[in-house]
Amino acid sequence: MIVKPADGRAVRWPGSMRLLKSAGESVPETSFWLLALKHGDIEEVKEQASPAAPEVAASPETSEPEKEPAA
Asked: How far apart are the C-alpha atoms of 36 and 4, rounded to whole Å?
């Protein structure tokens, strides 16, 4: 799961005591991280669509022109 510290919180990794990155990091679903999530120390980050492939909806103005029938 991908999590980030809740606003105003600093959370350390168990064992290494390194701070969890404020932008978010992938962490294992262990009891430590699940408990931190339950207590509100961290927030789960929803994965966003890749910026390389943005969604583009076809609008009526940009639809393909009608093809002329073959003679």
From this structure: 11
For 30-71, write each residue's pLDDT tens digit: 999 999 999 999 999 987 655 555 555 555 555 555 666 666
Query: Band of the pLDDT at 16, cuts 50, 70, 90?
Result: very high
Give residue for tokens 């294992």: 28
Residue type, 69: P
46: nearest Cα among 9, 7, 3: 3
Q: What is the DSSP string of 20-59?
A: PPTT-EE----HHHHHHHHHTSEEEPPPPPPTTS---PPP
